[in-house]
Amino acid sequence: MSPDRISLTRYLIEEQRAGRIGPDLRLLIEVVARACKSISVAVGKGALGGVLGDAGTDGGSINVQGEAQKKLDVLSNEILLEANAWGGHLAGLASEEMEHSQPIPDVYPRGNYLLLFDPLDGSSNIDVNVSVGTIFSVLRCPEGVTSPADEHFLQPGTAQVAAGYCVYGPSTVLVLTVGHGTHFFTLDRELGSFVLTQREVRIPEDTQEFAINASNQRHWEAPVQRYVADLLAGKTGPRGKDFNMRWVASMVADVHRILTRGGVFMYPLDAKCVAKGGRLRLMYEANPMALLVEQAGGAASTGRGRILEVAPTQLHQRVPVFLGSKHEVEAAGRYHAEAS
Ligand SMILES: O=P(O)(O)OC[C@H]1O[C@](O)(COP(=O)(O)O)[C@@H](O)[C@@H]1O
Ligand SMILES: [Mg+2]
Ligand SMILES: [Mg+2]
After folding, report:
1. In its keyword annotation, does this UniProt entry include Cytoplasm (predicted)?
2. Residue 120: which H helix or E strand, with range?
3. Residue 288: partners with Cβ closer than 8 Å, 6 or more residues away
4. Ligand that comes closest to the CA of residue 265
5. Distance 119 CA to ligand 3 centre (A)
């Protein structure tokens, strides 16, 4: 590798030398990155790898969320479990695809961190060859706990020591924060290593682009109805400018666009998901994305408060999500405040 190319390994060693992370966290992130490489290979094989379609045989299988699992949901979960069980840096892990967290069994080497992940985000896009990804969040295992249970994972997003996602698109990009900025690492497929391609990503504070699943419009709460109506009104409306709209339906891809060129991503509370508290999961979707976005100068809110300060009560808890360009997330918050 040429000396001016900074690999993920070198970046992490430099962070360790600067005293910003310890060796265990460095190695944990390396293990997660390696698992993401394996998932990237599986995703890339598509129909040739036999990885498309539903998991299970007759009628498919359903996960703890009541959602149909795809083969790649199951495979990605297995890859992450297998890699991390042996990694030696974790006390326990939790996944979208598993009802409860799992402590690392006694027979394996153990560490002091907890890992949460959405092994394959954007499942509805797998079979149509659109970008999907893996999202992860790292917490400290509470002091004195040797066999962590679900309750030990229930820490606010502010407690995350690292967070990231890997987007499997035309290129595979690992996006990482250890609490000192958000950085992009692109996978060099020939060499098999992640290379730093953008340091200190910054999200513009203003934007003219928003992302929301507009098919839910009739179910939205009044402040979201008003906010989106004002965006759509464009130049002649109260916002005085035209807005563009994008919706990939893979949170990783939508957030990656926002980290790259700004925008606001919304999955608000609506009448369909109000009983569950929202659509997106707090612990392994909203929290890691919120940390990445804040570390890039953006904002992340439930519409009524900072996502990272939500006190979790359940492992698979859901929350409303507004994240991206700071001024636009603040504007969405004002519409909520005015309505209450
Ligand atoms: O299908 P909808 O309602 O547009 O929802 C799309 C959202 O659902 C998700 O796919 C949920 O993630 P999973 O695929 O991990 O369940 C998000 O990535 C995305 O933002
Ligand atoms: Mg997801
Ligand atoms: Mg998923």
Report:
1. yes
2. strand 113-121
3. 116, 135, 136, 137, 157, 160, 163, 164, 165
4. 1
5. 6
Mutate which of 267, 282, 316, 322 for ligand 1? The one with the most ligand atoms within 8 Å of its CB, which is 267
Contact 213, 224 (CB under 8 A): no
Q: What confidence category does residue 143 fall into, taking pLDDT thresholds of 50, 70 and 90? A: very high
At 51, is the pLDDT very low, low, confident or very high (cuts 50, 70, 90)? confident
Question: Taking residues 63-81, what's their average pLDDT?
Answer: 89
Q: Give the strand pairing for 113-121 and 162-168.
A: unpaired
CA separation, residue 256 to residues 182, 239, 240, 290 (Å)? 11, 25, 27, 12
Is 84 part of any known ligand binding site?
no
Closest alpha carbon to 79 in 42, 52, 44: 42
Strand-pair category, 172-177 with 162-168: antiparallel
The answer as to CATH 3.90.190.20 being correct for domain 8-198 is no
* Same fold: 8-198 with 209-339: no
**Can you list the alpha helix ranges (DSSP code H) found in the chain?**
8-17, 23-45, 71-85, 150-153, 222-233, 251-261, 287-295, 326-339
* pLDDT tens sequence across 2-18: 668 999 999 999 999 99
Nearest C-alpha neighbor of 94 from the set 47, 30, 153, 43: 153
Strands ordered across the beta sheet of 299-301: 244-245, 209-211, 264-267, 321-324, 299-301
**Residue 99 corresponds to which tokens in the numbers above?**
């009802």
Report the predicted TM-score, pTM, of the whole model to 2 decimal places.
Answer: 0.96
For ligand 1, is residue 268 a contact (CB within 6 Å)? no
Q: CA–CA separation, 44 vs 76, rounded Å?
A: 13
Topology classification of domain 209-339: D-Maltodextrin-Binding Protein; domain 2 (3.40.190)
Domain ranges of the chain: 8-198, 209-339
ipTM above 0.85, yes or no: yes
CB atoms within 10 A of CB 219: 15
Cα separation, 313 vs 283, in Å, equals 10
Alpha carbons 59 and 272: distance in angstroms, whole number = 24
Q: How confident is the model at residue 1 (pLDDT cuts 50, 70, 90)?
A: low
